[in-house]
Amino acid sequence: MSATDAVHEAAAVLREAARTGVPCPPVRTLLPEEDVAAAYAVQRLYVERSLAEGRRLVGRKIGLTSPAVQRQLGVGQPDFGALFADMAVPEGLPIAPGRLMQPKVEAEVALVLGADLPHRDPTAADLLRATAFALPALEIVDSRIAGWDIGIVDTVADNASCGLYVLGGTPVPLDRVDLRDAAMTLTKNGETVSQGTGRDCLGSPLTAALWLAATLAGLGDPLKAGDLVLTGALGPMAVAAEGDEFTARIDGLGTVSTAFASATTQGARA
Ligand SMILES: C=C/C=C(\O)C(=O)O
């Protein structure tokens, strides 16, 4: 198979898994070993197809920023994926049963940009100037690959294992919060399941965002005003099941919550 055919084949396998709700085998067996560029080519096909279908790209997520998550997944480098508007779950609306295949929940800092970040060598000053506000966020990661048996190539090809996300409702300007020292606690059904601080996200959520800004500018697709950036987990991921309720508290940013509906739950669902 040619390299191009392999990229298309991996994209088709992941698409079928998403369509049927049946996780697929790792796609790293289809792509050249450890070829992260080929994996991003698979991700690009997903993004292009999504845009052609009318989905609205609203920003990017950064993944694999925390040592705890890197250990959980056995992957030692950050990556990024695309965020679409239809992946946002409003706070207060439960997540419908069956919407995701193998969900896990992470607590992170979200940044919303008020200006473009076009440079390949952005500085902290550029980022601080460009960020309109921060929010607490939950990312619900989900792997299209059976049993989360992923390496870097699998997760990059699979849109950085992104599923859904929930944003807190109170924007905080960056001059009001120290993101590096901010402590995070994530509870599941009232029990603490994950803890960390901003330092656990590549040293600081701002450092993670600078990595993303530089990487995307280098690829000719820079971050723009209005973009949402999920900067990466501050602590380990927690497995989610129907009926579970999660709340994250991040110092200086407040709380954000979500719930997974059970099949018997009535009412509106995301
Ligand atoms: C597999 C996904 C990992 C992340 O989203 C993260 O570490 O933030």
Question: Could you characterize the architecture of this molecule?
Answer:
The chain has 270 residues and is an alpha+beta fold. 26% of the residues lie in helices and 27% in strands. A hairpin with a 3-residue loop joins strand 10 (245-250) and strand 11 (254-259). The mean pLDDT is 96. The longest helix has 18 residues, at 3-20. The chain is built from six helices and eleven strands. It binds the ligand C=C/C=C(\O)C(=O)O. Ligand LJHFKMAZ is lined by residues 63-66, 69, 73, 106, 139, 141, 155, 160-161, 232-233.
- Unreliable stretches (pLDDT < 50, length at least 5) are none
Q: Tell me the major beta sheet.
A: 7 strands, mixed
- Find the count of extended strands (DSSP E, 2+ residues): 11
What small molecules does this complex bind?
Answer: ligand LJHFKMAZ
Pfam family, one: FAA_hydrolase
Organism: Streptomyces drozdowiczii
Keywords: Lyase
GO molecular function: 2-oxopent-4-enoate hydratase activity
Gist of the model:
This protein has 270 residues and is α+β, with helices and mostly antiparallel strands. The protein is 26% helix and 27% strand. It is globular and about 55 Å long.
